[in-house]
Here is the input.
Amino acid sequence: MARRKYIVGNWKMNGLLAALGEAAAIFAAAKDHAGVDVALCPPFTLIRPMIAAVPGAAVGGQDCHAAASGAFTGSVAAPMLADIGATLTIVGHSERREGFGESDADVQAKAEAALGAGLDVILCVGEPREVRESGEAVDYVLAQIAGSLPADFDAARLAIAYEPIWAIGTGLVPTVGDVAAMHGAIRAKLAEQAGEGAARTMRILYGGSVNGDNAAELLGAGDVDGALVGGASLTAVKFVPIIAAGAAL
Ligand code: PGA
Here is the structure.
């Protein structure tokens, strides 16, 4: 069976209660594109209000702690996300790996905690600019997968997001050929590590400066099953064309 396209918005540290109208407009428009799965990951503070405003919408976290509870000031546990109705969470975003020193082992533990709490997971990987320039991007990303993929998981509930760090928020994007090559290498790695069936089922999203103008081309690249979108997911005007591009494929 063909993999359904998956378009996910990562609002990062953006959005007050006043932004709920944008979420409502996004999910309303998504209903016109029933062949595509759409999710939003707002800041923790907006998860519950967003679910209340748009019942049934797929709303998730941008991170979770690996422990279920405990003395971890400022952190949020996966069962807490599930408790308020979140259905997914991102783990291993480069802004967490780089800014908060998260290792592959940390990301793996978070992914396992999230799956254990019943959340779907989007596990992010991606190389910094100097690694891309040195020609070692594929090896770098496959090593991240080797270190951060959970040992045992339901392939339908875990997606990978390939997000080259130099493309995030910069307006720069890799060539479609480079995206297809990386996604193909990731899928081969998933087959080796998790089995052929899992690799066929798992969705691999591209992220990094996706917008309404480049979405059709990027989503049409080989082995690309969706997009993880930052800046262009904050408003319906910018995000809905990306959903539409996914639906048109
Ligand atoms: P961007 O962010 O779309 O603003 O480049 C993508 C991401 O970090 O997930």
Q: What stands out?
A: Strands lie at 5-10, 36-41, 58-61, 88-91, 120-125, 158-162, 204-207, 226-229. The CA atoms of residues 125 and 162 lie 5 Å apart.
